[in-house]
Amino acid sequence: MATKKQVEEKLTELIERLDHAEDGVQDTLADALPETRVVELYVADIGERFWTEMAVGRLGPIHDGPPERADIRIRLDSDDLVDLVDGRASLFSKYLAGHVRIDASVGDLMRLRRLAG
Known about the structure:
Radius of gyration: 13 Å
Largest sheet: 6 strands, mixed
Oligomer: single chain
Helix content: 40-55%
């Protein structure tokens, strides 16, 4: 099990990686989710919540605690998060195995599905 600090470091690493990704990656994200979305991440095994805003294919800074509202809620354990950020597993495989749960509108789920396909 990862610690809260390790989870925060991995989330920061993910945001920095996305910030430095090729323009095509950010364009794909912006096309898939064109409106600003609040994304909440619940790391169940450590009982911590984090949130950020995704806009124009970029993630904003990570905030500690629950947001006032969330458009997309993701639930997973800390080790699964670390595996995802480190590239040892895909979001799709973790989702299919039941290790990641995503709660979002049908429209957002369909748009997110396009990213995996």
